[in-house]
Amino acid sequence: MKITVDARGLACPEPVLRAKKAIAENEAVVVIVDNEVAVENIRRLALKTGCGFSVVEKEGAIEISLVRTGPANDFRMEEAAREAALSCVAVPEKAAGPLVVVLSDNHMGRGDDVLGDVLIRSFVHTLMQLKPLPATIICYNAGVKLAVKDSPVLDDLQQLAKAGVDIVVCGTCVNFFNLGEQLGAGRISNMYDIAETMAAAGRLVRP
Hints:
By secondary structure, this protein is α/β, with parallel strands linked by helices. It folds into 2 domains: about 5-85, TusA-like domain (Translation Initiation Factor IF3, 2-Layer Sandwich), CATH 3.30.110.40; about 100-205, Hypothetical Protein Ychn, Chain: A (3-Layer(aba) Sandwich). It contains 7 helices and 9 strands; from the N terminus they run βαβαββαβαβαβαβαβ. Helix 1 (about 15-25) links the parallel strand 1 and strand 2. Helix 2 (about 35-50) packs antiparallel against helix 3 (about 75-85). The radius of gyration is 19 Å and the shape is elongated. Residues about 90-95 have low confidence and may be disordered.
């Protein structure tokens, strides 16, 4: 019996993550998506995990059929999903020292702020899927706005903190934006601590 996963409207890498979970628990899955990026990410998942893969376009949607041909391999599933996630988040595969992520703005990239808002939400959500997780996330300048109580990524940051990620928030920046009473995740820190953490990083990612 096939189950259906409707991943239309979901930003990368959420469709492939849902597909991975579904095919790990079921022999056959239909994933409905609405963009080619999701199709290619799920295609890589299928190739990596030895699943049968077929695509049919129906009324503006794309239906992807996955059929597991053998027992679920958790390691291969995790590896394939991680590769798909990293197609949205470029992180070097190996490096000495901890992974440190720097959030210096509450948008991702330059050009359109609406798109930048969508991208930063997807980026922070994707961090939960990295293995290992970042050791530290540093928020400074407008990036501190991501750690306040009404932030669209607050839940993800709180989950990361619960998982052991150190969320470091620039105190000077918090004061500049008058956000002292609104902090919802992380700890207030100083520039010496931030500089020391960045200098000791084996991998430093700034979206």
